[in-house]
Amino acid sequence: MRILTPRNALLAAVTTGMMATVSLANAATTLNLSYNGPPDTDKNAVHLFASNLKRLVEEKTDGDIQLKLYPNSMLGEEQERMEQVINTPSLNIASFAGLSPIVPEIYVSAIPFLFEDYEAAHQFFDEGDYWNKVEDTLEERTGAELLGVIEEGGFLDFTNSKRPISSPEDFEGLRFRAMDPSQVALYEAFGASGTPIPWTDTYMALKTNVADGQMNPPMYIIMGSLYEVQKYLTLANVQYSDQFLIANGEWYDDLSEENRQAIEAAVQEASELNREDVEKRVDERIQFLADQGMEVIEPTEDELAAFREKGQPAYIEWLTDEQGIDRAWIEMALEDAGQSDLLAN
């Protein structure tokens, strides 16, 4: 989940590590791949991606490169794993919590209601100038390579235990668990309050009424058994849920051209398999939540427009005022997403 950490401290650690790094590419045929979540392909789309990537890399390199999977943050939390992948031959699947301290500009990709559907999100990350710049910026700042964007659960939806939500006005007076201050800003724009709470504490916070609601894709609602403590599910497609595959730059640069192409092909194929699995199971997961007793609310187009009109300006203000993101990044992302009309706001 996305948690802000001190950027300067991480960059300092990264810089120190890079200075000490010597060429270790191809020093071993086995490479560690670390990530969050349980080793369950049914409940954790990140593990599904990792499992497919392992198989495909080993097939396409004829066994020259093998991957060893480390789920459940076994090799450390987000910041530790980022330092490892920058300084040693390895792969890491980072969430916003791992990447944003180094490239806070990635928060621009989480502007709420940025994408109408999966196809729009895929085009944004696969072909957009903004995302190309994110990849270049990570390499410039750390030397690491951002190899792919992993679809981890679909789009985020609102849940709560108090009442059906179909418009911004329905948020008035409610308390929400937030992943980070950007979500706090979004909730406040709707008239609710938000408090950052770690994912591991979310279930108990909802059960004890520390928070009335939260937002996540259906996959995470099921993974965390949140349907046991939440009554209402609003299908608002708030943000696209994704994580980021990162490789040690020196190791990657020193690969043979054949193996580099094999890895790129494996990443692309594993990503396509993930997208197919996640997207075909969204309706199934929503139905599961309904079967568990959740009331599913589908806002109308007018109601979704009301969410956008309040939520997007508040989030963009947070990007510029609180995070200090240069407006050029925002303009580029909005153009790639076909929402240049927001530039006038």
Describe this structure in words.
With 345 residues, the protein is α/β, with parallel strands linked by helices. The protein is built from 13 helices and 11 strands. A 5-stranded mixed beta sheet has the order 2-1-3-10-4, with helices on both faces. Strands 8-5-9-11 form a 4-stranded mixed beta sheet. Strands 6-7 form a two-stranded parallel sheet. α1 (7-20) packs parallel to α3 and α7 crosses α12. The longest helix has 35 residues, at 257-291. The model is unreliable at 1-6 and 18-28 (pLDDT under 50).
Keywords:
345 residues; alpha/beta; 5-stranded mixed β-sheet; 13 helices; 11 strands; globular; disordered N terminus
Spatial extent as radius of gyration: 20 Å
- Count of helical regions: 13
Strand content: 15-25%
Shape: globular
Order of helices and strands: HEHEHEHHHEEEHEHEHEEHHEHH
Whole-Å distance between the termini?
29 Å
Find the count of extended strands (DSSP E, 2+ residues). Answer: 11
Helix vs. strand class: alpha/beta
Main sheet strand line-up: 2-1-3-10-4
**Helix content bin:** 40-55%
> pLDDT under 50 segments (min length 5)?
1-6, 18-28
Q: What is the residue-averaged pLDDT?
A: 91
Biggest β-sheet description:
5 strands, mixed
Topology (elements, then pairings):
Blueprint: H1 7-20, E1 30-34, H2 45-60, E2 66-70, H3 78-87, E3 91-94, H4 96-99, H5 118-127, H6 129-142, E4 145-155, E5 157-160, E6 175-178, H7 181-189, E7 193-196, H8 199-207, E8 213-216, H9 218-223, E9 232-234, E10 240-247, H10 249-253, H11 257-291, E11 295-297, H12 301-322, H13 327-336
Parallel strand pairs: 1-2, 1-3, 6-7, 9-11
Antiparallel strand pairs: 3-10, 4-10, 5-8, 5-9
Helix pairs in contact: 1-3, 2-11, 5-6, 7-12
